[in-house]
Design brief:
Blueprint (H helix, E strand, L loop, with lengths): L1 E6 L17 H11 L2 E7 H10 L6 H6 L3 E5 L11 E4 L3 H9 L5 E6 L1 H9 L6 E6 L19 E8 L5 E7 L2
Parallel strand pairs: 1-6, 2-3, 2-5, 3-4
Antiparallel strand pairs: 6-8, 7-8
């Protein structure tokens, strides 16, 4: 599973710049429900580096969750043992996640970055893609599905709206 914040024009990068006025209690509840059973996260190097500098010192509820969870870091540039309860993914990330999914344990969440979510979703290693779509159009930031993505059919699994005006859309790849 992956859960991203999303603008109407598909921007997922830096949602903190545009989601602040449309994040209500329902969005917080969804995040809590989404991460409750997660024991492992798959994360790209850039986001891992940002989060590993910020979250270890935070008493925030998200920090209380992300700090102890096992993190699997996809990177071609990092090496050696990683801090912050993290393991470097060596070799093919798709094969690694496929193997991780076959182990006993809790749920796995792919928390980012953009290329990591995109490649694992297109490879069929993310069962559910949850997009909290905010009623905003932004002229900066990278999109989740850009012109590099081939035609990919999806199935809408669930749709609901929130009192903040967001649409929470859950998709799966169509067989």
């Amino acid at each position: 599973m992956a859960h991203l914040f999303h603008s109407l024009n598909d921007v997922v990068e830096s949602p903190n710049l545009w989601q602040f006025d449309a994040f209500g209690p329902e969005e917080g509840e969804l995040m809590g429900q989404t991460i409750a059973a997660v024991t492992d996260v798959v994360i790209g190097r850039k986001l891992w580096q940002e989060w590993s500098e910020y979250w270890p010192g935070s008493g925030d509820p998200f920090g209380a969750w992300i700090n102890p969870v096992r993190k699997h870091v996809i990177s071609a540039t990092l090496s050696g043992k990683l801090p912050w309860n993290s393991t470097l993914v060596e070799g093919d990330p798709v094969a690694y996640v496929r193997k991780l999914r076959g182990t006993d344990g809790g749920d796995i969440s792919v928390v980012g970055g953009i290329e990591t979510v995109r490649s694992l979703f297109l490879a069929g290693q993310i069962d559910a893609l949850i997009l909290t779509t905010h009623p905003v159009v932004t002229n900066e930031g990278r999109r989740l599905f850009d012109e590099s993505v081939p035609l990919t059919r999806l199935t809408l699994v669930e749709a609901r709206s929130t009192s903040s005006g967001n649409a929470i859309l859950t998709y799966a790849r169509r067989s």
